[in-house]
Amino acid sequence: MQVIKQRKKPVSPPLVIAGSFILLIILGTLCLKLPIATTTSISWTDALFVATSATTVTGLSVFDPGTTLTVFGEVVLMGLIQFGGIGLMTFAVLILLLLRKKIGLQNRIYLQESLNQNSIGGIIKLVKIILTFVLSVQLFATIIMTFHWLPTFGFKDALYLSVFHVISAFNNAGFALFPDNLVGFANDPIVNLVLSALFILGGLGFTVIYDIYQKKSLREWSLHTKMMILGTIIINVVAVFTVFLLEYQNPATIGNMPLDEKILVSYFQGVTPRTAGFNTLNYGDMENSTILFTMVLMFIGAGSASTASGIKLTTFMVIILATLAFLRQQSEPKLLSRSIRIDTVIRSLAIATIGLFIVLSFIFLLSITEKLPFLPLAFEVVSAFGTVGLSMGITGQFSDIGEILLCIVMFVGRIGPLTLFFLLMKPKKVHYRYPYDQVYTG
Amino acid sequence: MQVIKQRKKPVSPPLVIAGSFILLIILGTLCLKLPIATTTSISWTDALFVATSATTVTGLSVFDPGTTLTVFGEVVLMGLIQFGGIGLMTFAVLILLLLRKKIGLQNRIYLQESLNQNSIGGIIKLVKIILTFVLSVQLFATIIMTFHWLPTFGFKDALYLSVFHVISAFNNAGFALFPDNLVGFANDPIVNLVLSALFILGGLGFTVIYDIYQKKSLREWSLHTKMMILGTIIINVVAVFTVFLLEYQNPATIGNMPLDEKILVSYFQGVTPRTAGFNTLNYGDMENSTILFTMVLMFIGAGSASTASGIKLTTFMVIILATLAFLRQQSEPKLLSRSIRIDTVIRSLAIATIGLFIVLSFIFLLSITEKLPFLPLAFEVVSAFGTVGLSMGITGQFSDIGEILLCIVMFVGRIGPLTLFFLLMKPKKVHYRYPYDQVYTG
Ligand SMILES: [K+]
Ligand SMILES: [K+]
Question: CB 3.0 to 4.6 Å from B266: which of A274, A351, B244, B399, for a disulfide?
Fold first, then answer.
């Protein structure tokens, strides 16, 4: 990871980020293909798929991890999730710090890109705090879960299951070691609340956590932090309420449950789609309206520089605010006594356009290669793009080509559409300006 | 239509446009509900649905117009299509001109809004040219079609059918008097080429036609005109080619046809979705990939101030150009040695966002009210929003509430999402500016 001092063209940050993920995926595929990793032999495509799914913290799987993977395989899975989720770059800094090496400017720039920070100063401090925070939270949650599962599974299994599911939850991976994911715990408040607290926290984004840690009062929070906290609360309340109403009378899901269970299950299904991917209900049984609503949530995702993917909650909010500002004939979007730069609006437009383009293109391609019904197929692609991992139950039915296409979607979703395009396109600053001409739109 | 001179608050143009359409729809509903309009009694909802579909030049129908409507009913349909398509405001000017009344400033402003023109000067001239052009083209096409259909139907029927289908085609209404729309003419080059030429022309937009008429050489064309001509050619070539490839092996559609027929049918199905709505194939038999592709085309639509709806081709192009400019780190989108203003980009963003919001909301609502499969339902909503009129064959299966929801989508699609929101929201110019704050997106 050390930088060659006299390098003429430093490798671009997007390339380092993408490259790290690819290396981790290759390493994961090789490990999962080892005979000691699985109880039955799996194909290379399946190994690649699950390695990609774990590294990108998606959670889609072509086999049941709990029965197909050995303990070694599960530990590999945990490692991929933890490294993929918290970010390779963050870990690289930890390793350098532990080795007491000086961190070069180029490495700081990579970190800056990967964490979406604007200034290089303080970036090392940020990373230290993030890692301390992450490990403390994971340790704390593991203790709670171990105590909770102790009576059912005994100490050894309770501890092991707790470590796995805490890592999977905090990193928003959505992998579970139970064949029906968390459906068996639909009525267990501790499992529901601890795991959802973990994935909501992980989805806020590290810059938000750092900002809250640094600032003494709520007023000093940056606009970004305020938007993330406010947005997360609003979107989660709306989502929980919507799922509750839409599924209220569906006998295949919550229709026949008592009210308190209806509420708990709706809560979980409302907060999980924006990236977590755990489920306590079968999505194949849900109403089409709930499925469509869930797809929108999956596309939006959670926070920038977090364990989440999708276009990100702030991108979505900026687009909504810009649209409202346009309708009110204001020159810029405003929120909480702050203006948002027009550059940020254009950036959001680009992210959403590319995101929509990717999702539509891959639904299109997969509807050519696969003979699967449309809605479950579209759901699967959006789930892969948002690295969510929810499925209507068709993940095992894709062809090899289909699996590889989904791997690409998960990878692009995780590194972000912009990173991909900055990789592919050569930016050139153009300073000339042509005369303006009117274009009628809409 | 004359303006009361001392009116204190002139009615806003969006209100006049929306109001005219509503009046025409009410009038159409009443006429179609008359016993002399139909061969069998139809419900009020069905009358409203078909009147809305005709006025908004959509072409969706809950009954077969050819068998259910009498000649009187068909003439009503033609009237609604012609007035709805070319625009009530254009006709109002014609009437005023014929009555030799002076056209007041307020009326000129309405016209300006409705035709998307920037200056009031020359607007009357524009309208005169538009009407002369429209009627000449329709007359010319009617003559060709009458000669073509003469041997099959005899003079009277050939003339009547020609008038109806020419009006329906030029206004992009997509209504046909044959029970299977134009499937019976799939192999008839004259019908295919004449009708498609009409609806492509009608979909370019009146400002484009006026610009081409005015300018002596191609170089003098405005950026808008160039974009429309270039965009129409590119999107149609791509669409025809895509339909051809996707359906090539589908035995239910073109799979078993000889090559020349494959090409002709693909041509028609490639150019029809952006607003025309005629079909020479059953959409219920097509591949899911073709259906998805067609939905994207229907959402995009054709030209501003034309007989088309959807977000409009230029809106789509501006969004793509802005995204590419952002990726190239250019400050503004550029095309053909012209820059596009950032205001236009924001306007396009707002139109696309509202369009997407409307489409998703109504698919969501209809998936609650209707027990219909997802893809045909989503297809129907996008078709209504783009006032296209293509259907996978489920239009007759909607509940009364479903029909009314689709009427709202057609109406909103036709007046345009922006017109709707400017009706509902009170614009207030705000000149203060808050301090900027960084928001991380994507
Ligand atoms: K996930
Ligand atoms: K139409």
Answer: B244
Say what the ipTM of the complex is. Answer: 0.87
Predicted confidence (pLDDT) per residue in A48-57, tens digit: 999 999 999 9
| Cα gap A229→A201, rounded to integer Å | 10
d(CA B439, CA A302): 14
Rounded to 5°, angle at Cα A188 from A232 and A141: 60
Alpha helices, H only, A4-70: 13-33, 44-55, 65-68
Neighbour tally for B131: CB within 10 Å: 17
Judged by a CB distance cut-off of 8 A, whether residue A363 touches chain B is yes
By Cβ distance, the residue of A289, A364, A435 closest to B368 is: A289
pLDDT tens digits for B346-404?
Answer: 888 989 999 999 999 999 999 999 989 999 999 999 999 999 989 998 888 899 999 99
Smallest CA–CA distance, residue B417 to chain A, in Å, is 8
Give how far the C-alpha of residue A334 lies from the chain's centroid of Cα atoms, to the nearest Å: 28
CA distances (Å), origin B220, targets A124, A185, B164? 58, 70, 36
- Residue A422: its chain B contacts at CB < 8 A? 327
Distance from CA of A315 to the nearest CA of B (A): 5
Domain range list for chain A:
13-422
Who among B207, B351, B433 is closest to A339 (CB)? B433
Protein residues within 5 Å, CB atom, of ion ligand 2: B 59, 172, 174, 277, 388-389
A442/B374 CB distance under 8 A: no
Could you list the beta-strand ranges (E) of B110-265.
none
Chain A contact for B119, CB < 8 A? no
φ, ψ at B334 (rounded to 5°): -130, 145
d(Cα B132, Cα B146) in Å, to the nearest integer?
Answer: 21
Helix axes B123-153, B71-86, angle to 10 degrees: 150
Q: What is the C-alpha separation between A185 and B325, in angstroms, rounded?
A: 49
Is the Cβ pair B437, A296 closer than 8 Å?
Answer: no
Separation between Cα atoms, residue B308 and residue B169, nearest integer Å: 11
